[in-house]
Amino acid sequence: MAAQRWFFAVCLLVAATVSTRAQASANYPANLQADLGLAAPPACTLCHRSDVGGIGTVVTPFGRTLMNRYGLTAGNVNGLEAALTGDDAEHFDSDGDGVPDIDELKAGMDPNVGMSGAPPPSDVPLPQTGCAFAPHSPASALSSLLVVCAGLAFFGRRSRRAGSLTRT
Fold first, then answer.
1. Mutual orientation of helices 77-90 and 28-36 as an angle, nearest 10°?
2. Is the pLDDT of residue 42 over 80?
3. Which of 1, 63, 104, 140 is deepest in the core (most CB within 10 A)?
4. Rounded to two decimals, what is the model's pTM?
5. 66-97 burial by CB neighbour count: b if 16+ within 10 A, else e?
6. Where on the phi/psi map is residue 96: left (φ > 0), alpha (ψ -120 to 50), or beta?
7. Residue 129 φ then ψ, to 5°
8. CA 52 – CA 140 distance, rounded (Å)
9. Hey, is 25 helix, strand or coil?
10. Digit-coded pLDDT (tens) for 79-124
């Protein structure tokens, strides 16, 4: 019985951690708005393939710059601030149009699209990732984790009962 309580306590702790990590990346647009004094939060497509976001979907020059040049990782709000500070200090220009990324963002422009109107070929390589679990929301992460925990608890209980029936 004590082992079951310990198991469920661990499951709840992991669920809380997973849901917090998912929220942290979802807060990036609001953090960008606050850190740079933007009129509105940028769309997730500033860095990601689509507004769904997720691990392995950072495809834009600006997003790849923040990850590869400044070490930004998923769910690291402090890392986002450090990456923006580094990009601003270097006056880095991800799209090669002569205007630094942060200046473009503050002016309401897209740091992924050069003067020609098309994204430039980037010398910043696309991040390589392996398999990952990328929930669309903290609620889906929590519900997925709880289903896994419930399944483990159910099958663990069944195997203990089956073992106790065979003992003499």
1. 40
2. yes
3. 63
4. 0.59
5. bbeebebebbbeebbeebbebbbeeebbbbee
6. left
7. -130, 160
8. 13
9. helix
10. 999 999 999 999 999 999 999 999 999 999 999 987 666 555 555 4
Terminus-to-terminus CA distance in the chain, angstroms?
A: 22
8 Å CB contact between 76 and 62: no
How is residue 25 written in tokens?
A: 């990346």
Length of the chain in residues, anyone?
168
Q: How far apart are CA 41 and CA 44, in angstroms?
A: 9
In sequence order, the 6+-apart residues with CB closer than 8 A to the CB of 67 are 58, 73, 127
| Rounded distance between C-alpha atoms, residue 49 and residue 93, angstroms | 20
Taking a C-beta distance cutoff of 8 angstroms, is the pair 61, 127 a contact? no
What does the DSSP assignment read for 39-79? SSPPPGGGTBSSTT--TT-B-SHHHHHHHHTT---TT-HHH
Q: How confident is the model at residue 72 (pLDDT cuts 50, 70, 90)?
A: very high
Provide, for the chain, the percentages of residues in helix, strand and coil under a 3-state DSSP scheme, each rounded to the nearest 5: 55, 0, 45
Range name among 5-19, 23-37, 129-143 with the lowest pLDDT average: 129-143
CA atoms 80, 130, 52, 119: torsion sign? positive
